[in-house]
Hints:
The protein is about 50% helix and about 15% strand. It has 3 helices and 2 strands, in the order H-H-E-H-E.
Amino acid sequence: SRCSAVAVGLLGVLKAGAAFMMLDAAYPDERLEACIDIAGPKAWLHVGAHRASTQLARTLDQRVPRQLRLD
Length: 71
């Protein structure tokens, strides 16, 4: 299920010594872009088979160099 995949992803991120920031596709695009710009992530973790938001995915693809998928 998605909950267990999120938990596994979170544990992996923390074990690697990285930080975790959850983005909600329901947030306005401007807020998501500001969060991404401020955090300056090096990678993003995508959990689930569906892309939550086309705009969010496009923004992350443009601004974050690596994508990790847990499907």
